[in-house]
Amino acid sequence: MEAALERTASDFDVLIVGGGMVGASLACALGHRSLHIGVVESFPFGAAAQPGYDDRSIALAYGTRRIFEGMGLWPEIAATAAPIERIHVSDHGHFGATRLRAEKYGFEALGYMVESRALGRVFSTALAALPRVELISPARVAEIETGSDHMRVRIEQEAGARLVTARLVVGADGAESSVRRWGGIDVRREEYGQSAIIANLTPEYPHRNIAYERFTDSGPLALLPMTDERCSLVWTVRTEQCATVLALDDREFLARLQERFGTRLGRLRRIGARASYPLALVRACRYTAPRLALIGNAAHTLHPIAGQGFNLGLRDVAALAEVICDAAAAGQDVGASDVLARYEAWRLRDQRQVLRATDSLVRLFSNEFTPLVLARKAGMLLVDLLPPAKRMLMRRAMGLAGRQPRLARGLPL
C-alpha cells in the first residue's frame, strides 16, 4: 500500500465489505455492542440501483424470522411479508406430490415472502440509528493487506483513497467476492446449464398462502405467495432457451408458463417485469483466512430450488455474530485465528448439508432417466405418507435443524 496515505482515526473492530442483505444483517446484529463496525458498499445505501435490493422477492424461512426477532427487526419486516402456510410440491407430467402444512406442527407459517426492496428500507432505517456503525458508500475496496494484529484496507471513494485498519474483515460481497480473492481462497464452481427467470404475477384464484414448487424437464418452477394476491415466479429454464422465453410477449409467456404449472391457481392473468440470471453452485474451499471471514454468497451460492440461499447466509450471520460477541465479551481479539476457527467449524456441517441436498434435488429432478423418474415419484409419495420423514424435511426447510445460535432461537446477543 502507498505509504503516503495516512491511517485514519476511524479504525474498526469489524469491517464488513458488502452492504446487501447479508452484510447489512451482520451490521445490525453487531451494531448494539461496544464494537466499532464499518460497512463498505459500492452503491449509495437506499439507492434504487443497489443490486441487493432489486425487484426480487425473498423467501424467509421460519428460522430466519427468529433471527430477525433476535435482532429486533421482525415487526418492521412482518408488516410487508406474506406468510407461507402450506407448501405443495409436484412433478410435471407425473403422479405423486408432497404437502407440508404449518398448522399441523404448531407453527403459524413455514416461512414468509418479502420484497427485497422492503427489506432494504428496514435495514437502512436500522443502520442509520446505530451510532457505532459507519456506512462507507459509494466506495470499493482496492486492496487488503494482512498484518499480525489487524488488516490494512485501502478504500477508494470519489473524494480519494482512504486507509483503515480492522481486526476482522468480513466478505459479504457476493458470488464474485473480491474479499475472497484478496484472502487467497479458491472456489469450486459447477454450472447447471440453467437460468432462473423471475417476475411477479397475478393469478385468477387467491393463492391462500400456498407456495407451489413444480418440477419440470427444464428445471423447477415455483409460484410463491405475496401480498395483494400476487405471486413471485421463479422459473428455471435451460440457459439456451432463456433468451427466447424472455423475448415472448406477455400473452405467449403466460401461456407457456400455464402449460408447465397447470391450473391450480386458475388462469395466470398478468405478469410484471421479467429478469433472469444464470445458475451455478459456487463453494468457497474455506470460509476463513487470517483475520478474514466469508458469509452469504461470498461463501456459497446455491440453486434457488428450495429457496435456501439467503436463509443459509443469515445463519452464517447469526453464528459469526455470536462468535464475535462472545470473543469481545471475553476480552479476546475478534479476528484471532481460534475465534474464526470456531465460526468455520460451526457453519461447515450446515453449509455442506444444504449444498449437497440442493444440488442433489437439482440433478434428480432435471433428469428424465426412467428409473430416476420412478424413484422420485415413489419418494414423493413416501414422504407424504410418513410423518417422521415429512417432519424432518419440514424442519430442514424451515432452518430449524442442527445447533441453533442465540439469534436463531429468537434471543438477543
Description:
The protein has eleven helices and 20 strands. It has 413 residues and is an alpha+beta fold. The protein has a domain at 12-82 and 115-189 and 280-366 and 402-409: FAD/NAD(P)-binding domain (3-Layer(bba) Sandwich). The strands form three sheets. Strands 5, 6, 12, 13, 14, 15, 16, 17 and 20 form a nine-stranded mixed sheet that branches. Strands 1, 2, 8, 9, 10, 11, 18 and 19 form an eight-stranded mixed sheet that branches. A three-stranded antiparallel sheet has the order 3-7-4. Helix 1 (21-30) packs parallel to helix 8 (309-329). The longest helix has 29 residues, at 337-365. Mean pLDDT is 86; it is low at 2-10 and 369-386.
